[in-house]
């Protein structure tokens, strides 16, 4: 077999080109990942409202942000989704955890309403049903995680349709990663990529387009 020989200069150029390609690829990947994060993270739009609606999930970080808004006087009531029939409740029941946490933080229990739901779609259904029963509620603040904000607003907007309800929205900042850095942590990778898959699924199943205008 004939040996292939290359000059030192050629070898150096090939190695340098390879390194440059790797660096460019890393930079391009970072740009893509950051843009993916920021696309999900809608800029907050928040003002005083009638009710703060915290969407279940995310452990304590969402309810904590909702409580902070309540304590700062943004709204006199707190709604939390995620209630389930007793036979479906587990040892870690998200809605019950949120209720107990809010009461421990000093929010009167009669100011907290737990809404039944097991998904973002059902969150929106419960919110709209509760709004229909309350003529005195004309505005809400939706609270969720930054990566969940776009899909949840699209779904809630789909259910509200032409209802004359003002929807404000904000995301908690109690996570160890943000739209810039989600891809550097395992939990961030799982949650953000999962959110993209759910957005596509909601588009196919419910017709909720991911790029909706809320």
Per DSSP E runs of 2 or more residues, the count of β-strands stands at 5
Percent of residues in β-strands: 5-15%
Distance between the termini: 67 Å
CATH architecture of the domain at 51-176: 3-Layer(aba) Sandwich
Helical fraction equals 40-55%
Please give the CATH class of the domain at 51-176: Alpha Beta
SS class = alpha/beta
CATH topology of the domain at 51-176: Rossmann fold
Q: Widest sheet: strand order?
A: 3-2-1-4-5
Provide the succession of SSEs.
HEHEHEHEHEH
Approximate shape: elongated
Briefly say what this structure is.
Helix 4 (120-132) packs across helix 5. This protein has 6 helices and 5 strands.
Please characterize this protein's 3D structure.
There is one protein chain. By secondary structure, the chain is α/β, with parallel strands linked by helices. It has a domain at 51-176: Rossmann fold, CATH 3.40.50.620. It has six helices and five strands, in the order H-E-H-E-H-E-H-E-H-E-H. Strands 3-2-1-4-5 form a five-stranded parallel β-sheet, sandwiched between helices. Helix 4 (120-132) crosses helix 5. It is elongated. The model has no long low-confidence stretch (mean pLDDT 84).
